[in-house]
Amino acid sequence: MRILVTGGAGFLGSHLCERLLADGHDVLCLDNFFTGRKVNISHLLGKPAFELIRHDVVDPFKVEVDQIYNLACPASPVHYQVNPIKTTKTSVMGAINCLGLAKRVKARVFQASTSEVYGDPEMHPQPEGYRGLVNPIGPRACYDEGKRCAETLFFDYHRENGVDIRVARIFNTYGPRMQPKDGRVVSNFILQALAGQEITLYGDGSQTRSFCYVDDLIEGFLRFMNQNECVGPMNLGNPVEFTIRELAEKVIALTGSKSRLVERPLPQDDPRQRQPDISLAKRVIDWEPRVPLEEGLQRTIPYFRENPV
Ligand code: NAD
Ligand code: UDP
Question: pTM of the full predicted structure?
Answer without folding.
Answer: 0.96
